[in-house]
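anyone seen this seq b4? input:
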Amino acid sequence: MGSNTTPQEMLTESAWGTGPGPSKSTTRSASLFSSMRSIRCLRNIIHWNLITTFILRNMMWFLLQLIDHNIHESNEIWCRCMTTIFNYFVVTNFFWMFVEGCYLHTAIVMTYSTDKLRKWVFLFIGWCIPCPIIIAWAICKHYYENEQCWFGKEPGKYIDYIYQGPVILVLLINFVFLFNIVRILMTKLRASTTSETIQYRKAVKATLVLLPLLGITYMLFFVNPGEDDISQIFFIYFNSFLQSFQGFFVSVFYCFLNGEVRSAARKRWHRWQDHHSLRVRVARAMSIPTSPTRISFHSIKQSAAV
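predicted toks r here
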């Protein structure tokens, strides 16, 4: 980590999306989803949980970067706990992408009523299933690879695949989900009366929007394309950009550009404006009788009448 990070560690970090992203956008989108009760449907609850995992994963990544190299080498127990928590949030991040894929595939491909879907099932998949996976990884790390705060992996060691294996499986399943969703979309577009150019444009747009939501961007550069320096530099920076900005893309497409969210935010803004203007009018009305000028004029008028 830090200045002691080797090229292999940089490749590992970029390959699993541990780079820092624009956390402000993900934080704002998470606060919007949590604060607006009018848009709290199952779909938006899933979005909120996914964005929350982006925030937690990035927070733990930043904390890991603050660890001194000497502590990293001394393999302190609290340092190992931080790495374990970070990997837990990484796995939950991918499992919530899997939940997104399950929800879309169920609603679009299987045409199953989303009203019959249970929230607790998705919460169990997203937050609970990663727990035994990370516990098994931590136990194996403790007994077979207890060094350097459990961060990174040695060449030829496969313990990290205890949690990376399920992540790869999730990505492959989401790729199948994406294929089926786009296939159904193309079938419906061809049945419509729109032109062929508009049909392909809508299909491409839907595909690009779904890529970050389902984590398919991780598969674009899943394997390093070459061993030369140029290929490795391109792989590191381009892949790190995609993974670091994945949370930003999800926030923009599914929160800030979401018509339902924008409509709810607009209504809340108008209510605040109306309430604020009403308070200003009431305050002004209440301040008029107590004005010194008004009181003196009223008293003068009464004295004149007497």
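The chain has two domains: 2-257, 262-306. The longest helix spans residues 77-109. kinda curious what u guys think
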